[in-house]
Every structure is written in structure tokens, then in C-alpha cells.
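Backbones bend. To wit:
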Amino acid sequence: MDFKVGSVDTPKPANGDVGSLAGNQVSTLKTSASSTQLCSAEATLGRHLARRLVQVGVSDVFAVPGDFNLTLLDDLIAEPGLKLVGCCNELNAGYAADGYARSRGVAACAVTFTVGGLSILNAIAGAYSENLPIICIVGGPNSNDYGTNRILHHTIGLPDFSQELRCFQTVTCYQAIVNNLEDAHEQIDTAISTALKESKPVYISVSCNLSAIPHPTFSREPVPFCLAPKLSNSLGLEAAVEAAAEFLNKAVKPVMVAGPKLRVAKACTAFHELADACGYPVAVMPSAKGLMKETHPHFIGTYWGAVSTAFCAEIVESADAYIFAGPIFNDYSSVGYSLLLKKEKAIIVQPDRVVIANGPAFGCVLMMDFLPALAKKLKRNTTAYENYHRIYVPEGLPLECDPKEPLRVNILFKHIQTMLSGDSAMIAETGDSWFNCQKLKLPEGCGYEFQMQYGSIGWSVGATLGYAQAAKDKRVIACIGDGSFQVTAQDISTMLRCEQNPIIFLINNGGYTIEVEIHDGPYNVIKNWNYTALVDAIHNGDGKCWTTKVQCEEELVKAIETATEVKKDCLCFIEIVVHKDDTSKELLEWGSRVSSANSRPPNPQ
């Protein structure tokens, strides 16, 4: 994966003065003799907020203008090093911030009061579920209107301005209502530092009449944050390592499994160190794909219960001990609660806690400290990997297509595999792309993102925009289903305005295929669009864009060749027409098990 500021293992951001993002305290420390005195035009709330964003590593803010945030947007635009990316709607702005944070480690978005805030809320909830630090800035009412009985536009018609705040309280880790210049500096700094420390979104509402007003608290260049790192309890760490080492060293065929919380724990490097030291086979949970190098000699694929990579589940579930680092066991990742795992065999390592089998448990033990310390205590044991090597049979190739035969999905992904390199990144939309993209083998350095915990269809269009804006050294390849694309298609326009060059494979199978496999009905059939014509209309001759429609393998080969060579500097939109029932075998299995979990009858009362 591509990480910079606040990333998995690199707490040091672009501005070298900013401290670890994994802290539990915040203080402002001088790193030079004095900070720069600012002129009054620059000593404003809005400019202070903008400078803070740049300091923590944000260079792009995804925004939708509205009358309550216009002055604030002026201040953001005026800040050197900060670019305003105007999006077509607030939902996509939030999804773009989500994608940006996955690459850059932190992101920001700006919308207007209530109509903008409630529109972006869904994307912020998704970011919360994925532990992404997004600074969500809302232009709020004039400070004079608070505490009055006035009714404002962009509200539900009540003299109560707290509706938006109450909605954000459950999907952000900190909320700041900035309607007073006296404490604005403190509120803004606390919000931003909390986002970095907690790796969760925060909400900042700024009254529309305050942004451009100078104030003494903003008269100097803000001193960069120094966030004190979290520390493990040394005695707890020692005890946890001793107990885990004893548990694993007496096992005959132990295994390791990486979970998605490796990212928020900033423990990817530590996990690799443990894998190198112990010799165990290494799998990843589906939402952790991309966090572990798939070129590692003991990597065995994705552990996803009944829909795992071939031979992976057999090795994991037959092990007599397994260590899960940062797992999330939900109904999707457990394939309808059907994993064949036993608690008494498991060590569960969370970002700040270790639980060994049915006990004991050790709190205040950081994963990033625990894993390297454990690596020094484990005996090398390659038994389980040797078992895997004995039973492994290389995957077969899909059947060859006859000339002009309608394209099959497995043929599409065979060719996508050849496109991947360390200079690319994959974005997989909710749907069958989850399963097909899991089977791709990622070269070292290749990014990979999907939203499994929240699973919001349409996420990938905005996420592609945001990721591409943050990781300009990579070419983003996105696989998006037609149903998902219809939710958020507009921001293809923003990709063109930003001169991005992603390759978007629009998989047109006529409906919500993932939902068909869970529970079918007429509501899963959608109106077919002329997708290439839609993108051409959005392009409208402004920017670099190339579209094509593919219905057979010969056309696909030609399209990929054009997209990667002649049109490598263009946004390339390739519509893939496939049969409505052409799905991965993994989706068929997963869908039936999730359906079974969803349809469980009520427990007897």
C-alpha cells in the first residue's frame, strides 16, 4: 500500500516536525527559536485551519460550496500548498476523503451546514468504520444566531441548530463547534490532533462570519504538533510476550493471520518481522489484503472461511494455534459466522490488547511493541508451511475463449492481473469485485483498497478520485459494478478536472449481483445505461478521456493495450459487458451463507 503521513508504519509526516500520530496527549512545542509573525490578513481563523491542514500532510481538500462555507473556502484557497478539489456532491467528497486518507494517512473535506453535513454523513460513517482520520469541516450559522429563536434555511425549520451535531457525534471521535474566536484556536487544534491520535474522523463546524476575522491567537505561524506516542505497559508487555511465546512454542503447526487493524496499529513492519522470524505460513483476512507483502515466501493467500484462497482455509483451520493480528470478525468476514476456528487455539492481538486463548488477557500492550518482542522469543517452526507446500496445487487458468465469444469475468481478471505492478493501485467496489480482486496477486508496492466493514455501494468512484489525488505516483485501476456506478457516477467529472489517469473497468451485468446472490428479487434489476456515452458527455471535450465498450476477449486485449500505452495519460473508461449470471464461485458460496445468517429465525423468548 502507499503510505505517507500518518500511515501504517510511518508516523513521521511530510512536515518533519509533526510527532507520532499514535499519541495519547497533545502539546505544542517550539522547534525553532520563534515562530513567524503573521500580518493581520493572514492571522485569521480560516488561515490557521488551512495552515494546520498543510502541516499534518493534507494538500487537497474535497469540497462542495454552500453559502455558509464560502468565506472559509476563500481562506483554504489562499493557503500555499493547499488545493481545493470541488466535487459534484457531498457524498462523493466524503468518499474521496476516504480514499485520500488510505493513501496519505489523513484527509479533509469541507461542506455547508446540514444539507451538506447530512449528505456527507454516510461517507464519514464509512471512514469511522475503517479507522481513517478525516477532518470534516462544515460552514456553520452566523455566531449571532446561536441561542436565539431564529429559524435558518438549510435546517428542518426548528430554532435548534444541533441536529447536524447530534448526527455526527456517533460517527466522529471529536466534535468542535467554533462560534467564538476566543477558543477557536484551541478547538481546531484539539480536533485535528484527536483525529490523528485516534485515527478516526472529526467534525469541525465554523461559523460563517468568523473565518476571515483576524485574532491575536492566530498572529503567529502555528507551531507543529508534537503528539506524545502511546506507550505499552512494560510489565504487561513482558508478561504477554512470555505467555504468547509459551503458547505458540508448544504448538505443532501454528499459523499467522493479518487483520485490517494492522493499519491503525501502525504495525505492518512489525508483523513482517514476526513472519520472517517464526517461519509460520502467513494469511490475510480479506479486508487486510495489501497490508502484507504477497511476495513473502510463506504467504499463502486470503483466509475467508469457505471462500478462502485455495488450500489457505485448510491450513489455517487445521492449525493447533493461530495468531490473528488486528482481526475484525463480522458477518461478512466470517462468511455468515461459519469460520471453523476455536477460541482456545487463538491469540488475538488488537492495537492495544492481547488475549491468549480463553485467557489470560493483557491490556495496555501495543501491537507495534508486542509483535517484534514476540519475534525474538519464538522458535522457528515451518511445519504448517511445509504441509501447505505438500498439498498446494497451482491454480488453473480459465478456459480459453473462442473467437468473438462473449467475454467472461474470469477472463477479464486474468488480463487485469497482467496490468498490476508496483506503480499501480487496485480499488475494488462492493460486489463481485470483492471476490475477483481478492484472487489477484499483488506485486510488491501495489496498492489495494476496498471497503469491507461498511460496504457502501458507490464508494469506489469517490475513493478512486481521492486515492489518485493523493498517490500521483501510481496509476489507479478501479473495478466497479454498474449498480454501484449509478450511485456516484458524477465525479468522473472531478477526475477529469484534476487531470487524473485512472483505468476504470465498469462491469455491466445488469444489476446488483451481490444482492442477487443473497436474496433475489425484481429490485435487483437496474435500468441499463449507455455508460460510455455518459462518460463522453461528462468529458464534453474538456480534459483527457478515452472510452470504449468491450464484449469479447479480443476487444479487451486491444482496450488494455490502448489504455496502458497510447492513452496512458488519459482517464480510461472501459465498459465490460458480461452475462448477468457470470459471477465468481466465491460470491455464490458467500451469498448463500450470508443469506442463511440473515434469515435466522428469532430466538425463542
